[in-house]
Fold each of these.
Amino acid sequence: MNNLKLAGGKREKTVIDVNGTLFGGGEIILMAGPCAVESREQVLQAAADVKKAGGKVMRGGVFKPRTSPYSFQGLGPAGLDYLVEAAREHDLLCVSEAIDAASLELIAAKADIIQIGARNMQNFSLLKLAGSLDKPVLLKRGLACTVEEWLLAAEYIMAAGNPRVILCERGIRTFETSTRSTLDLSAIAVVRELSHLPVIVDPSHAAGRRELVPALSKAAIGVGADGLLIEMHPEPETARCDGIQSLRPGELLQLAREITHLAAALGRTYPGPSTKAESLDYPEPSAQAETLDTLRGQIDLVDRQIVALIADRQELVRRVANHKQVDKVRDGAREKEIVDRLGKYAAELGCSADLVKDLYHVMFNHGVRTQIETKLAGYTSCTGAK
């Protein structure tokens, strides 16, 4: 690959500093948010969720190149303003996709990172324009492009004068139909061999299904990715695009916890969820703006997060059943230990210990029923009983 005069070579690995966030260093960088900015309220909530998970960058599309002309095309400049406002309010960077010269100019003026999407990876005029700007560029691999073509696209940007290129693997088109695309994890290792540029992975577009995103995210970190670009929506069921592959806030939090341990095992770092995330501490509206409606809105946001975490807990309870005997499902000592421990924690937070006790009594009973049903269903399946 002799043509890679700038993007290639065995030189020291490049670390790109974006307002204090280092891409290509020892820290795994989480970039997350909705596929598309749909409203001010939606993106403000999404930014709060990203921050709680330890994310550093808020993602959100405002100019959407869609396969169908009748699909949602984004909110345009107004959406960009919402995205920037949400990121700034939660001390995050923001990234959004430019699709042409006009959108590139707008995004370069307001966002922290310009994204060149897979469809435009070989839009050489756009690459040259991005190269003329003093703004980091996130360059996604085209869905039918080789690693060499991807690196040559980066070369276009760098040859035009912009050395701050972050590569992003997002899956390629293959004969496989069980996923939206095929995540090419081998490309991460190849890029690290051929190039000094930082490389991140977008598991959401590769999978096309949210349940696959956590596993692909961890696999990406395992092969050396410097970060993740993940789609997360406060209410995926109502998303105007890509809801099926968007994590829920609680799922992003759980993934963040797992990434923290994985990064440490690999000699890297990830900040992990904030303490506010653990205590479900949502930012309060200012005194001037506080009304019955705004307070109820805050309660609604907390309630959604609580339900998401309960759903996570229920799934773990079902899995625990696989490690118990059917006549020893209930563990009174364990239940008492949990109530005592969380009662003390509740008191530290100024919450009623009795309320926590009552809530967990209900959850314990439901969990026992769930585990017994799970065990009996497994027994019936194994014996063929009807």
Amino acid sequence: MKPRFVRKSRYEKKNRYVRKKMQLLLLIVALLSLAACNDDMTPGQRWLATTTEQIRQGYQQLSAQTRAQQQMADAFCQQPDAQGLQTMQAAWRESMASWQHMQWLRMGPIAQDNDDWKLQFWPDKKNILQRKMQDILEGSEPVSADSLVHASVVVQGFSAQELLLFDPQFATVEKFAGRQCDLLRASTTLTARVGQKLADAWQDETWLKRWVAPTATQAGLTPAHVRNGEILDALLAQIERIKNDKLGEPMGLKTRDKKPNGYFAESWRSENSLANLQNNLLAVQQLIRPAQGYGLFQYLKDSQQQALADEMVIKLDNAQQALQQIHPPLTSAVTDAAQQPALQNAHRALGELATFCKQKLAPALGLTLGFNSNDGD
């Protein structure tokens, strides 16, 4: 009699996933405790453990969203129609939200192989994207994920998909009858691959050991201090990028003529610019006061810095509320005289949040910040 093969139930698969997740979480805690050479975790170690778990979950979410988007693109391209195009646009927004939530982390596995640029090419002040996309669409070589992976990062990620799905020159059902659908499928396949690669990297025990126990470069610093300083540095760089590049650039604050230009905004074709900013700050909020776990707010409190903890929350709330006062889309808001007070207020609030992180938060926690290119802009 031939042996019977029993298919594992969804319940069993889910249990296996939960066990794996708990094993990795326990590994993080164990490594941090070992690094401290005692049984009690310090505030810095608790924040690193929570942040590490948030990063892992964030990349799992990005992987799930990009995989779902790829599957929707495959289904849409079998028979393109108006409803399918709307579904694809919604799927792109969901994937973009997941990416914006993780965009602050520009170190670790994502820094290898230009994976951050493969996910999104921006800024693009000279509109390089449209020219390169047009070249592919007008070409004769077959378009697939395996061919696109060898092309420029400009045409591989979310910016390329945005152009196909939202730009009036491209986003019509008739345009998706041929090569444009091939390009959409290839691009969504590549972003799904990158998303899966990053999620897998943050499940790797070897990497997690290196992450939670980096080599101290200065005498007297614990591994948690070293890594937390890098995390805060990355967070500060993102806040300054929001202020200077994502908001200040389209407002005209970085150009010589000081003229606003909405086309310098991130995700201007989809009118998703302000949603990106709000998702960026939600990621900051999660690091400060997560729904579960140990955030910067508690870290400050346990470091006898209650007043600073309260000030930090106020600075973040001010920035979030200021952004909500800008009426979308940002592309037209920057040239609307009536919206200038709201834009200036948001820019100022973001600057105050960045200054707080540099001048008060880092010193209070004894964390060392490095240099970033947005500093002082």
